[in-house]
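Q: A reviewer asked whether we had any structural model of the full assembly, not just the individual parts. We don't, so I'm hoping you can provide one. Inputs are below.
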Amino acid sequence: FDNYKITVVFVLGGPGAGKGTQCEKLVQEFGFCHLSAGDLLRAEQNREGSQYGAMIKQYIKDGQIVPMEVTIKLLENAMRATLEEGRPDQGWTNGQGRFLVDGFPRKMDQALKFDEDVCLSSLVLFYTTTEEVMLKRLLKRSETSGREDDNEESIKKRFRVYKETTMPVIEHYNKLHKVAEIDGSPSVDKVYEKGAKVVRELLA
Ligand code: UP5
Ligand code: MG
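A: Here is a predicted structure for the entire assembly that you could use as a starting point for your response.
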């Protein structure tokens, strides 16, 4: 991918920090294409004939990180398809595009591989709040989400993997001065204002 033409923003934060919620709003204001790595994996898991379905299901239930080749391929394919289709409704022209990559990279190997083989990110939006808040949100969401990892046992595993495996990724990008940390505890709209301000500055 041509880094001069496309802009990639990573969106990170713990399970239930509000990544997906904030991405949906950023799409509306800034015309991003929103790619959630978790959503892509869940779609692949359910795709008939996928050779990875059973493996993905097990990893997600255990809160573990699916081997990076699978996730990066899904992201690349989705980016390519979107660029080929074009997004005239969003004002994209001539192979240009903006992507919000949500919930990725969450392990150092993925981060390095994506930077090298796919493209460099411009910014990392990092939403933070306490485990207590995240647990409460996820248990509430479990009533309707149908997600197999929205149960207390899987959530605890996800918290652990987040701390041990994803925090080093954030520290890595922090050293590169790419991280904007945003308090994800207040209301959706308050959190949005802070994130939108950072994105506005990036795109200005
Ligand atoms: N909510 C949101 N914001 C709120 C606010 N400000 N105030 C009050 N409520 C708020 O939000 C969660 C819930 O909280 C919602 O009900 C929302 O209304 C409410 P959401 O926006 O969905 O939070 P999000 O951060 O997106 O939480 P999510 O559960 O999606 O985060 P995860 O990071 O756990 O899930 P993801 O889908 O990214 O990954 C799932 C699994 O896929 C991983 O555990 C892993 O097994 C696998 N995976 C990989 O293997 N590799 C990857 O690269 C990516 C994923
Ligand atoms: Mg999400």
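A: Points you may want to mention in the reply: The pocket of magnesium ion (ligand 2) is lined by residues 19-20, 36, 38, 103 (CB under 6 Å). Residues 152-175 form the longest helix (24 residues).
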